[in-house]
Write a structure and sequence with these properties.
The chain contains 7 helices and 6 strands, in the order E-E-H-H-H-H-H-E-E-H-E-E-H. It has a domain of about 140 residues: Jann2411-like domain (Jann2411-like fold, Orthogonal Bundle), CATH 1.10.3300.10. It is mainly α. The longest helix is centred in the middle third of the chain and has 23 residues. It is globular and about 60 Å long. A two-stranded antiparallel ribbon has the order 1-2. Helix 4 packs parallel to helix 6 and helix 5 packs across helix 6. Pfam families: ABATE, zf-CGNR. This is Zinc finger CGNR domain-containing protein. InterPro entries: ABATE, ABATE_dom_sf, Znf_CGNR. It comes from Micromonospora rosaria.
Length: about 200
């Protein structure tokens, strides 16, 4: 099964190994013709819920964003479109390191997130960069952009693979150099079943 229910919405299962890859996996069937049913992020409400599902936002912030989106629907639509734009560019960059135009798109969003971030220290004095709530409805987009930049700046960037399953193309980290499928239980088993039928025809 490729999905789970979160706050009443179907969400893609988390199997990629990094939030940046999970963002790419909110589109189903990258190599297939674009159709509305392939889109998991169909509106801002789903985007906010998915960001929490992926560990990019906490529940309190997510609830506030969803309420704000109902009051500012035009802004919410714009943020959703920008997130999809980031997702498409990131997918291209991860599979083609030489895709300069797509990289510039990812970099633009990542630099926007970096400019918004604030350095905060906890009670023990340990500091970390955080995205402030006053970033508003753009928070899910900025969190995705930070995740994308994080992935592109680590050795894991070279371990990204695309699932060869029919109507899939989901991305995942192949940390041991042996993983072929996004999910053996789904795409892997489908491929095995097709191979079996082919052998016994």
């Amino acid at each position: 099964m490729h999905w789970v229910e979160v706050d009443g919405y179907p969400m893609p299962v988390l199997l990629a190994g990094h939030p940046g890859l999970e963002l790419c996996n909110t589109w189903a069937g990258w190599d297939a013709p674009p159709e509305p049913h392939r889109e998991w992020l169909r509106d801002y409400q789903r985007l906010a819920v998915w960001a929490r599902h992926a560990g990019l936002l906490d529940a309190v912030v997510t609830d506030r964003l969803r309420a704000a989106a109902r009051d500012r629907p035009d802004e919410a639509v714009e943020v959703l479109a920008e997130t999809r734009d980031l997702r498409a560019a990131l997918y291209v960059v991860l599979l083609d390191p030489g895709a300069d135009a797509a990289f510039r798109v990812v970099a633009r969003y990542a630099e926007r997130a970096a400019a918004t971030a604030r350095l905060r220290a906890d009670a023990a004095g340990v500091a970390r960069w955080t995205l402030p709530e006053d970033a508003g409805l753009a928070l899910p987009l900025l969190a995705c952009a930070r995740a994308a930049a994080d992935l592109l700046g680590t050795p894991d960037r070279a371990r990204v693979r695309a699932c060869p399953g029919d109507d899939c193309g989901w991305l995942f980290l192949d940390t041991r150099g042996r993983r072929r499928w996004c999910s053996m239980a789904v795409c892997g088993n489908r491929a095995k079943a097709r191979a079996y039928l082919t052998r016994h025809r």
